[in-house]
Description:
By secondary structure, the protein is an all-alpha fold. It has a single domain, classed as Up-down Bundle (Four Helix Bundle (Hemerythrin (Met), subunit A)). The protein has 6 helices and no strands. It has helices at 8-17, 22-48, 52-56, 61-71, 79-94, 104-122. It is globular and about 40 Å long. The termini are far apart.
Amino acid sequence: MPFAAETxxxxxxxxxxxxxxxxxxxxxxxxxxxxxxxxxxxxxxxATGLGxxxxxxxxxxxxxxxxxxxxxxGLRHLEPQVSGLRRMRTRCDYEYExxxxxxxxxxxxxxxxxxxxxxxxxxxxxxxxxxPWPTPTP
Length: 138
């Protein structure tokens, strides 16, 4: 059985409960985002029978994911939350200035947002994931 990406959310919640420093909180944000991204990707691959490269191309996979959500009936209302999680994850991973360091409340907010998005995605039928999506970035 393949790895269930949404289990990253449990990892994020456990790490948050014992977060001691900036690295822990940044990791919480990343795991929360990847729970959503991975779950979406797995649902899409299952529904369409296509692989990651066929769906998202070689570059721009994360933006393609956000673009798709913004156009998908039944899922477009999630685009602002996912876009925000993606921005926060990118800042946590690549921008080390203090202004991008999430405090406990912001890290918890990422976990809460990811939980909301996963619950919303999980309620959608498989045919939502067969809807046409943007062409991947070459």
